[in-house]
Specification:
By secondary structure, the protein is of the alpha/beta class. It contains nine helices and 13 strands. The longest helix has 15 residues. The chain starts with 18 loop residues before the first helix and ends in a 15-residue tail after the last strand.
Length: 282
């Protein structure tokens, strides 16, 4: 019996232009609807089962999805996806968020940057700002901003997580507490239905909590895939932010909570472009 949950038929076959776009759409579908069989995916994307197998094998080899008999589902929630895969997943959404964040950051600002791929994209978007003072435990952020000679960068010490290129171990735990800055920019692994923030380790939660405690404004940056995504360690709430930047509307309940807490919700979606339009740059 086919247990795949499908999207209503009027939205399929999904119009995609490349295997990369199809891969991103497969990931989004599996995260939204759960287990998908190879046959179901082939029908929904209007391609052969052999084509879908190539797509899902690549996604599974990189840890983005998990093989199950006859199909795929999401990996277990005990660990995050590999950083290189997270860097390209939903990249257009992350860049749209980053461009919007850059408009909110004034010149001469002092900033905290947390770990993750969306804060990294925010750093790229801020590379031409003048006289920024940045404190971060994210090596990717430091590298992104380093071409700007007017940006002063202070990096946390401690043991590096080699694949993630960041420091969250106990040696780095007091880093953000040494400073008081204008804006903290941080992401999370997931947001539960009640607004609880989730990450994959207590060290990650500790660093994020310390970051948000010592800045005057708190910018939570996350694409739509983080809402409803499971992770193992709870810490903080979405209403702890000053502003939440995402790329799609969120649930009515969470939007109500943000409104009642006085937290700005900023939807950072790009306009729909013609299919033959070629993007350039960021």
């Amino acid at each position: 019996m086919n247990m795949s949950k499908t999207i209503p038929s009027d939205t399929f076959p999904i119009p995609v232009r490349s295997s990369i776009e199809r891969g991103e759409a497969i990931v989004e579908l599996v995260r939204t609807a759960g287990f998908q069989s190879i046959e179901s995916l082939a029908a929904q994307f209007d391609v052969t089962p052999q084509t879908i197998r190539r797509d899902v094998n690549l996604l599974c080899d990189h840890g983005i999805l998990r093989r199950r008999h006859g199909g795929v589902d999401v990996p277990s929630t005990g660990e995050n996806l590999a950083y290189p895969m997270r860097q390209v997943l939903n990249i257009d959404a992350k860049r749209a968020i980053a461009r919007r964040v850059a408009k909110e950051v004034p010149e001469d600002a002092s900033l905290f940057f947390g770990i993750g791929t969306t804060p990294e994209q925010c750093a790229h978007a801020l590379v031409e700002h003048t006289h920024l003072r940045v404190m971060t435990n994210n090596i990717n952020v430091a590298v992104a901003l380093s071409p700007n000679p007017q940006c002063e960068i202070t990096l946390a010490g401690g043991r590096i997580r080699n694949l993630d290129q960041d420091m969250v171990s106990s040696e780095a735990h007091n880093f953000f507490g040494r400073f008081s800055v204008d804006i903290g920019i941080y992401g999370v692994a997931g947001v539960a239905e009640d607004g609880t923030l989730l990450d994959f380790s207590s060290d990650e939660v500790h660093m994020r909590t310390e970051l948000s405690t010592h800045c005057r404004q708190r910018f939570l940056v996350l694409d739509h895939s983080k809402f409803g995504r499971s992770a193992t360690v709870r810490g903080g709430h979405i209403t702890d932010a000053t502003a939440v930047f995402t790329d799609k509307p969120i649930s009515i309940e969470l939007e109500k909570q943000l409104h009642q807490a006085g937290v700005r919700l900023i939807i950072c979606s790009d306009p729909v472009l013609p299919r033959n339009f070629r993007r350039s740059g960021l």
